Amino acid sequence: MNQCPVNIDIPWINTVVRDRINRGSDGDFDFLVEGLTPDSEPGGVDPQKRLFGNFEALAKLGSAFAPVSNWVARTDTAGALLERTLGVDRRRELPEFERETLVEWFERRGPRVGRDAARRQVALYPDAYTNYVRTERGKAAVRVLEALDVRVTVPAAGESGRAPLSQGMVATARSNAEAVFDALAPAVAAGHDVVVIEPSDLAMFHREYERLLPTDDYTALNEHSYELLEYVYGLLENGASVDALADGDDERVAYHSHCQQRTLDLEPYTVAVLEDCGFDVTTSDVECCGMAGSFGYKAEYYELSVDVGESLADQFRADDAADRTVVASGTSCLEQLDALLTRRPAHPVRLLDRQ
Fold it and tell me: What range(s) does the Cysteine-rich domain occupy (predicted)?
């Protein structure tokens, strides 16, 4: 919307159009999934959209049966079946689910900073990918915040609604948004901050929730939610010691920010924190990694997704970046870079974690 000279919210118009298309006539095979998918949509939503729009339900199953579910998903038979029935390109590596979720890990571990000793208190929002797939970045976030004397809780808040909204499933996105607010409301009411790892989910809190939640609920969450490295930057600016974080020791880093992060003007905070910790940071000037959430998984768009992503990968293969540690803030960017580079990328918070 910021790029439109008359401030027309084109992304939301696109979402509404998708929603209306979804509400067309029932599909021939809707009866096969009736009552089985945990969404709030009527008939007419095609199975591929239901798959991506209900990612958290899929992640719960994948986590519950891990590592067997991961092994099955890697087989040629599963790849061929997913491509034939749901249009998921068999060349795209599927997420590997963790048996223990981030929420379960934290419930077992508990907070390590006492209320009286805490500089601040936060609720760390466990987005679906961090909770079920890339749990290591969630654990690193907890440890980094605690190193800066922040008392952390990790409420079981559920998926933000980004996944269903991307498929035009507005009713499901609204239901998810309401559930997330209910889970985070006690922390917000107590004056605690909400820290978000995944930029696309923070963008939901700051933008789309204005259309999905009552005004007072949206305002409360919008005013109390922060991106993770934005929050760390604020702590350091207000007296927390950078010595509590890992020493970069001039390690060379190549950083790619998420598109949603850039629209919220949050990229500079990550760069500043990494540099404060002693990392030598270069940033990409490529606008898009090409993954775009579920877009890069779909067979009809796979080639285009990779073609777009190669521009970013080529930049990180260039002589001045070829030996740098690759970091990216967004899940989509991490997945695409992981597929295109021989170096495994990481979330920047993992570089700050002493463990």
Answer: 253-337
**245 within 8 A of 216, measured Cβ to Cβ:** no
Gap between the Cα atoms of 264 and 324, Å rounded: 26
CA atoms within 13 A on the CB side of 181: 23
CA distance linking residue 111 with residue 149, whole number of Å: 11
Question: 67: cis peptide before it, omega within 30°?
Answer: yes
Cα separation, 171 vs 287, in Å, equals 31
Q: Which CATH architecture has domain 244-352?
A: 3-Layer(aba) Sandwich (3.40)
- How far is residue 353's CA from residue 319's CA, in Å, rounded to a whole number? 28
CB 197 within 8 A of CB 169: no
Cβ proximity of 159 and 197 under 8 Å: no
How do the domains of the chain map onto residue ranges? 244-352
Q: Taking the model in full, what pTM does it have? A: 0.89
pLDDT along the chain (355 residues), means of 10: 56 60 54 51 70 93 97 96 94 96 98 95 98 97 98 96 90 95 97 97 96 97 98 97 97 94 92 98 92 91 94 93 95 94 95 95
Residue 264 DSSP symbol: T
